[in-house]
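Hey all, sorry for the wall of text incoming. These are the two entities for the joint prediction.
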Amino acid sequence: MAKVAREMVERAGVNVDQLLELLVKNAAAELNTYYYYTILRANLIGLDGETIKEIAEVARIEDRNHFEALVPRIYELGGKLPEDMVEFHNLSACRPAKLPANPRDIRAMLTVLVEAERCAVRGYTQICNMTAGKDHRTYDLALSILHEEVEHESWFSEFLGEGPSGHFMRRGETSPFVGKFLK
Amino acid sequence: MRRFTEEELLYYDGRSGRPAYMAFAGKVYDVTGSFLWRGGRHQALHTAGADLTEAIKAAPHGPELLAKFPVVGVLQGKEKPCEK
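and here's what came out:
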């Protein structure tokens, strides 16, 4: 725990226990998503499935990176992860991104993927709103994750034809925004 | 349609097996089955059994997400005139 770091955040007016609960819930969502996306990815087959497999894989790896980046901040602020993995799963900030009933239905697959990303976008927007100008380190982390989640949402949304394409798949290494927290 | 007072609504806090209800703009919604309302709590910030009309203004989503939940009543004194 970083005692003074927590004290600074408290003195800035942030309810640190509430913030920690949100960070843990979003860390759970990230690890859950990494797990469920592994199953989705394995089922992205055929002409349509293979088309989106690589993007789903990038989102999967980056969501795992988000989990890895969140954990140190949780402990810095005096929080911890639950010892029970089942408990951790169940307190997730987002619904499990489970395989749709018909995994060959690519629209259903994309809908699961885009809904998971939209939940994440909402979650990190909430954390940014809570910490802006008050908890600079958590804000920087949440904003970095938000950048990547917005890109994920855009990728899947554009495959669903919800709007013109303005984004391209990741070039270079994964997690261009969150990477600085992983070094 | 059942009319809830704010005191009656408090009972439906989603804890100890009780249903989780929340109110928005005069309507009472049953969010018991929602993964995001497990145990009557939502995103560490909100609890069931309350009128969240004001709170939703600061939420990272709009009231459109409530459309998928059943309306189980109206909140007395907060309902729109046509719902009285």
